[in-house]
Model the fold of this input.
Amino acid sequence: MNPLNSKNGIFVAIILAALVVAGIFFSNKEEAPKPIPKTAAEREKFEMDSMLEQLRQDTMGLGNIVIQYWEYDSTVDKMTSQKTYFARNVAKGRFRLDAPYDGPNEARLILRQKGNEVDVYIKVNKGQFAGSYASSNVLVRFDDAAAKKYPIAEAADGSSDIIFIENSKDFLSKLKTSKTTLIEVLFYNNGKKVLEFETKDLNWNH
Done:
């Protein structure tokens, strides 16, 4: 037997054994636990980071993704066969209100057309708008244009999580050409908050 080949074989075996041991060591090494969020701001950041990480994992390998800011839907009245059309847009980012409405909150800008009547309204998943008795308008800014006041109305059934934006024809004409729409609203016992909507690519031709 060639002594050189024997030595080379022993050396290779030692290297392979070292690599196996290193692999076992690093595979058994536990990931350092993440700190537990304590404050409301830390909890909100933790929730947002977790959501973004889950979204990143869900979309891995999908290539270029076209983001749709508007969701469309329709319903049919069984008694009249009349169709009602909807377009919904979720505000960019979440916001927080004081108790009992604390925690992440979402707002939606909704368009509704039934026959020749078009309604524009904002709905939150929790919380209360101050209502027209406290503020008779909202301030709206389309892209870089000057902010403009639009009158508001309450829901017919008295729901406080919805406000209707009046002068909908003018609002829609500007909304269709805007990329970003800012709406300043007044919440009950929570003051004013600015809701930001990515409103480009609206398809509303009913």
Summary: DSSP finds three helices and eleven strands in the chain. The two ends are 89 Å apart (CA to CA).
